[in-house]
Amino acid sequence: MSDPRRTVRGVLSATVLAARPDFTVTAVTCRDEHPRWSPAEARADHRMVLVRRGRFRRRAAGADADVDRTLAYVGVPGEEEQFAHPAGGDTCTSLSLTPALWRTLAGDPTRAPAAPSVYVDARLDLAHRRLLATATGGDIDYALTEELLALLATAIRRAVPGPLPPSTRTPARDRALVDRARQAIAAGHPAADGLLPLAAALGVSPYRLSRCFSRELGLPLTRYRNRVRIGRALDRLEQGESSLGALAADLGFADQAHLTRTMRAYLGRTPTALRRLLAPHPADGSRPEGEFTAPPPPPP
């Protein structure tokens, strides 16, 4: 798989699954067989590439590697690469990071990986699949970002030499950090629109913020934020909100369908059904249909 930014008709195609200033997730498909090495090319970003189907060969820093679903690779800016496809096409996921995001996970952005090839065990394979599934859900700024950070943190620990940036966490600091994040989310602070800007506003790495939530509250930051947004949606529906599109936009959902999926996942009902359920009871004492239907457990 060569540079995903370059698309060759009938040979190489790239589809951006998610993009933010600090990262891009791209699906790349090569449809041809090229047993010879490609011309050397250099990228300007930090990246990790995982294979979804097929295999190919990569040459960098004088070393060759067979890359398939069990072996990913990590690349750094300025590194010259060559690729060969002796076994036909392949489909990959390319994760491109800015130096700033790389630094929060690996430290010095100029430090090259000691092991550019990373073994993809079953857990890392599952993390890759979860990332791709989350990319279709519409919540890039929290759900997908948390999955991306977890995957990268695992892989980078295997690839980067020496100790990672030292942790300054203590139980008291973690609790204080979680409290500050909760306050920002509750107040609707602009930085709380995404995990990365929220972490920057709090002066910590996004991975640490995500991990602190899981340790302190027993649930991911994404689920906590959704809990707050669902509470606000219920308030509006209880007050008779008529425009679900406006409600979705005001609460930061990608669109009305994203709002509906989220509320159904957490409460087992659509916003329209919840609006009926929360309407004032008729004078005859009857209750809205479905009031006693138990909701499903919250999503993991």
Automatic annotation (TrEMBL):
Record InterPro entries: AraC_XylS_family_regulators, Homeodomain-like_sf, HTH_AraC
Region ranges (Disordered): 279-300
Keywords: DNA-binding, Transcription, Transcription regulation
SMART domains the UniProt entry points to: HTH_ARAC
Gene3D superfamilies: Homeodomain-like
Entries under PROSITE patterns matching the protein: HTH_ARAC_FAMILY_2
A Pfam family hit: HTH_18
All copies of domain HTH araC/xylS-type, residue ranges: 179-277
Domain of life of the organism encoding this protein: Bacteria
Protein name: Helix-turn-helix transcriptional regulator
